[in-house]
Amino acid sequence: MSDNALIEASNLGVRHGETTVLAHVDFRIEPGEIVTVVGPNGSGKSTLIRALIGLEPAASGRVSRAAGLVIGYVPQKLHIDASLPMTVRRFLSLPRRVSDAQAAEALARTGVAGIEQRPLAGLSGGQFQRVLLARALLAKPQILILDEPTQGLDQPGTAGFYKLIEEVRRETGCAVLMVSHDLHVVMSSSDRVICLNGHVCCEGTPRVVSAAPEYRALFGLGTGGAFALYQHVHDHDHDHDEGHGHDHSHPHAAHSHSHDCEHDHA
Ligand SMILES: Nc1ncnc2c1ncn2[C@@H]1O[C@H](COP(=O)(O)OP(=O)(O)OP(=O)(O)O)[C@@H](O)[C@H]1O
Fold first, then answer.
1. How far apart are the first and last CA of the chain?
2. Does the domain at residues 7-70+141-241 carry the CATH identifier 3.40.50.150?
3. Is the distance from the beta carbon of residue 83 to the nearest atom of ligand 1 less than 6 Å?
4. How far apart are CA 120 and CA 135, in angstroms?
5. Could you identify the atom of ligand 1 that is nearest to the CA of residue 50?
6. How many other CB atoms are there within 10 angstroms of residue 225's CB atom?
7. Which of 9, 131, 174, 265 is 20–30 Å from 118 (CA)?
8. pTM of the prediction?
């Protein structure tokens, strides 16, 4: 494991039964980085996340995590029984009991102060995602891992959520690894984007990836699209570049493998 990485994978392969879901994936994330994994449905994004956490075995290659790494994980699907009369407060104490003060602080941090006594089942999608984030933050993670955290949110809700993630990163210094389909918004709030399709099609800073032919082919983009939008958003918001030691003037080069990324996996 190289110095400073929180999680690292080399030549990672994962199989589900006879099917190879991921092959030859190299990955690393360092403290304070926001890394987003994008890719079509079924491209192995959740599988990669689960393999990096250790919830799925590697069929080949290896995954290493920093010793004692504290992970705050929000899975893609969380089944909450709507008939279960669980309050937000009670949910925040699962699985680990937290004090009222800690619960209140976490809810305030994620922009939903004072909703302790509301039933979980009655929250809006955006409120629920913020409660999930609050719960993940209570573990004081070194890395937050969020699998499609803005699923079901509208565009302003999604943009607000990503802004919150950046604030959390800025204030706590935690790294963030997330999966997203919200290509446009993600572009403005990630240090690095990994474009996945069973293997890493391309990766690098949002600017580099959004211009990469592999990425554009995979998402069927023309010559404007996400790149133009990313530039527009980014031109007006440079806050997240400050103080994290990421040198955006020397992006990781996007690289392509010999694999064909133009398959339709949707
Ligand atoms: N437990 C499982 N058993 C068998 N196959 C699985 C299992 N979990 C996932 N797969 C298959 O592995 C492939 C990758 O799935 P994965 O959920 O990682 O993709 P994804 O990129 O996260 O997709 P989505 O964008 O739809 O959430 C898919 O073909 C899926 O059907």
1. 34
2. no
3. no
4. 13
5. 18
6. 15
7. 174
8. 0.82
